[in-house]
Amino acid sequence: MVLLVAALVAGGEGRAWADGCKRATNMAPSINKFIDEVYRLQLAGQGTLPVTHALFGFEKISADDLRDLNARPPIEVTREDDDNGVFRNEAPKPMIITGNFAKADTFFDIPPLVSGSYISTPDSLTLIYDPGHAVKVGQTFLGMKISRTLNHTVITRQQLSYFFDANSGDKPDRCYQLVDN
What we know:
By secondary structure, this protein is mainly β. The chain has one domain (13-179). Helices cover 14% and strands 48% of the residues. The chain has helices spanning 28-44, 63-71; strands at 13-16, 22-25, 46-49, 58-59, 75-79, 84-90, 95-101, 104-110, 113-121, 124-129, 136-141, 144-156, 159-164, 174-179. Strands 1, 2, 3, 4, 5, 6, 7, 8, 9, 10, 11, 12, 13 and 14 form a 14-stranded mixed sheet that branches. A hairpin with a 2-residue loop joins strand 7 and strand 8 (104-110). The longest helix is centred in the N-terminal third of the chain and has 17 residues, at 28-44. The protein is globular. 36% of the residues are buried. The model is unreliable at 1-18 (pLDDT under 50).
C-alpha cells in the first residue's frame, strides 16, 4: 500500500524535539482523515480507498505522477478480527513518484503489489508491510536514488513514525510530531 506514503528517509522541517522526532506542520488533517477512513472500513468489514489518501503529507506531486496515482486501483482493506486486517493494492506495473515531504524532496518507489496487515483503533493506525511487497522511500543524492524499504508505520493523531528495513522494534528510524502552523 502506498501508505505509505509518506514515510521518509528525508529529514524533516526544523530541529528535532527532545524525543528525537522532527516537527511536521500541515499533515494532521490528512492523517486524521486517513485514520478515520481506515477505521470506518474496519468497522464495515471491508472497503477501498484511493491511493492518494495514503499519501498524507506528500506535496508537490507532478501532474503526470498524480495522473498515474489516480489510475492505480484503490487500496483494498479487509477486516480479519476486531482491530486487525489486511491491505492490498495491485497494479500492472511499478511506479516511482516524486514530490515533497516535510519540506524535503522525496520519492516513493511503489511495486506492482503493495500488501500487508494493519491494526486500527479510533485514534491510531499501524501498517505492517509484507516483505517483498513494501514501498521504498528515498531521496536523490548526487544524482543517485537512495531509498529504504518500509517495514511498518505507526500513525497517531499526534505523531507519525516510520520503521525501515529490518526494524520491527519499537524505536522508529524516523518520526514526526504533528504540529499546527
